[in-house]
User: Which sequence fits this backbone?
């Protein structure tokens, strides 16, 4: 059980981390010092982490270094700070990049999953704007990333960014629930609210895109079109619900939107999901959507400020574009439910 005495007894930990010191340059394995958790914070021993394309996007940007990247992970609580009640030492948890304070108007509303009490503070802890990482050799501060920083043996995360899971849940699966799977399934489920019998087009068949396909199948979509340059993705996609495939390099000179319209009887897909992070692909996804009610959901993270080229008159006939951060899910409410569903997928 948590006590203030237990929190005050936590000491700094020295451990290894993959530190990014310059934009686009190889990460450097270094010894870092991880400070004890402060009030409302949790220190986690990372047991599994994975690479998300968003990590790569930000790794390439200037002005974010030195940083410890990584935001898809699962770990075990090593120590807690004051006022932490919902998790305890030894609990299995997934850290997530979106906060859920469960108190602000956004967290209390079904219309948003963006916590307005604890907005993202790039590079630092959300409540005091400081870091818990430093170089063990020089004492130089090292920045956090997306409130998680999982490319390290121990990290410190605000409790609003932590979700408790069953200790028996497979770590590799739990890791993906902290970003990719939740983002994709949630986008089909909560943001698009895909309807039974509908048609879906998924642009980009990485972890997020494949999770969108799985989510669309769960919602009853009967035609799910996957778009990707890598033909190796197609076999995986079939197992997750994709019924048709388009390789943009093999369209005979036609645009992808033209092919999708042909495949859907001339109208276009009811729902289009962009999972790459490309302004041009976002525009093509929109052009692939059906007049009257077609909905385009944007999930990909763009590293530049490139605008999306959508003529205003193409929106008037009822088509829409909507952004989706973390699939619209509220992490503490929805991730445990997705974990249960993942068990059923694994056994089916």
Assistant:
């Amino acid at each position: 059980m948590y006590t203030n005495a237990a929190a005050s007894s936590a000491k700094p930990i020295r451990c290894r981390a993959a530190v990014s010191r310059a934009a686009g340059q190889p990460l450097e394995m270094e010894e870092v010092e991880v400070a004890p958790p402060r009030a409302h914070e949790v220190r986690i021993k990372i047991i599994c982490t994975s690479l998300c394309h968003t990590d790569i996007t930000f790794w390439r940007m200037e002005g974010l270094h030195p940083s410890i990247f990584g935001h898809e992970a699962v770990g075990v609580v090593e120590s807690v700070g004051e006022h932490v009640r919902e998790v305890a030492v030894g609990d299995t948890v997934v850290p997530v990049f979106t906060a859920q304070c469960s108190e602000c108007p956004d967290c209390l509303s079904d219309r948003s999953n963006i916590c307005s009490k604890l907005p993202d503070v790039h590079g630092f802890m959300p409540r005091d704007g400081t870091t818990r990482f430093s170089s063990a050799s020089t004492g130089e501060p090292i920045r956090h990333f997306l409130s998680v920083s999982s490319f390290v043996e121990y990290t410190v995360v605000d409790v609003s960014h932590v979700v408790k899971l069953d200790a028996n849940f497979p770590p590799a699966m739990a890791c993906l629930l902290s970003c990719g799977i939740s983002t994709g399934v949630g986008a089909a489920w909560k943001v698009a609210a895909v309807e039974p019998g509908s048609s879906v087009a998924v642009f980009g068949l990485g972890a997020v895109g494949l999770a969108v396909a799985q989510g669309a199948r769960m919602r009853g979509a009967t035609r799910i079109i996957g778009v990707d340059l890598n033909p190796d993705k197609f076999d995986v996609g079939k197992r997750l619900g994709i019924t048709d495939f388009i390789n943009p390099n093999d369209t005979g000179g036609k645009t992808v939107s033209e092919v999708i319209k042909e495949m859907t009887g001339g109208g276009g897909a009811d729902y289009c999901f962009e999972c790459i992070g490309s302004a041009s692909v976002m525009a093509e996804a929109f052009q692939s959507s059906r007049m009257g009610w077609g909905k385009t959901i944007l999930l990909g993270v763009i590293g530049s400020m490139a605008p999306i080229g959508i003529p205003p008159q193409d929106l008037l006939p009822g088509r829409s574009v909507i952004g989706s951060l973390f699939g619209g899910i509220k992490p503490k409410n929805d991730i445990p439910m997705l974990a249960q569903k993942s068990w059923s997928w694994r056994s089916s």
